[in-house]
Amino acid sequence: MEAVGADVRIDAAGNLRGFYPAAESKAPRLLLGSHLDTVPNAGAYDGVLGVVLAVALLEALDGRRLPFGIEIVGFSEEEGVRFGAPFIGSRALTGRLDEKLLERKDSRGISVRQAIEDFRLNPGEIPLAALGNDILGYVEFHIEQGPVLETLKRPLGVVDAIAGQSRLEFTFVGRANHAGTTPMHLRHDAIAGAAEWITAVEREAHKVLGLVATVGTIEAKPGATNVIAGEARLTLDVRHGLDEVRIRAMENLIREAEVIAKRRGVSVSQNILLSQSAVAMDPFLIHEIEQAIRKTGCEPHRMVSGAGHDAMIVAEKVPAAMIFLRTPGGISHDPAESVAIEDVAKGIECGLHLLDQLSSSPTFHKRMCRA
Length: 371
Ligand SMILES: [Zn+2]
Prior knowledge:
alpha+beta
């Protein structure tokens, strides 16, 4: 970043930030970036590609100044691997890295606060990491981490919303009994009830466009080959770009579980572990990105991001948008994760078109005057 003329610092939340000034001083700034951390046994592109791509855009500007400044942000702790809490870096930018989060501990008992100090940063300066009033928007390049663009044979996509998610835990309770002596019609089998419901979850999700629903874990008690299960505990993860669709699906699946349980003479209860609303991306930026993608000779694809990203946190404060790059095989969070060099070239080309468009856009100019 220094080599391309940016002024570089690390803020108190560990975000790496480089500021490339505008043609005139005191001009507002556009944020570009993604995250620098990743998951264990990860690939090489999730997150960091968006940071490197932003640096490549500055490099391609070759010293040319724009009517707005550009700040590149390499976010820290997006994945939440160490402290079990994601988006620590981006939360600092929106002023949401609070005391409670700072006291959170990792598996070795080291708090976020301590980790920041060990990194020779000052947690007392976290408020200084927050965004000012001069931010025009945030644009994040990221690998898709899924198979949609590859299936459509398109290198680039634009995210119109980040899906909301619900996570629930379901417990089916029947009666544990002898697997040999209890006739089939006299059983209250918790696993069989849960299994019938799992297939119903899959069927429901297939019926609704864009809905994804997953039973990712199942645990049965007492858990013996020769015992009918008395209890089965499952998790459900439901996501959709529209909150009302997700909530309706969740209600249907709860009702379905109750119907199945009643018919089988077992009981079912559930509790909600997480309920997170969908986050819409900025319509103006979406439109500009689509135009920029078309200028590269590609047809843009509008899509919902099923995964959470820093953009969804930053969107609380400033207009945000995301550009997805096709992910070969849809594989991510794995060493096999990759990206085609031609697609990265299209990404850079799209980014440069976008910067040019924003530089001459009357709508963006109005935003600049307000900032
Ligand atoms: Zn990521």
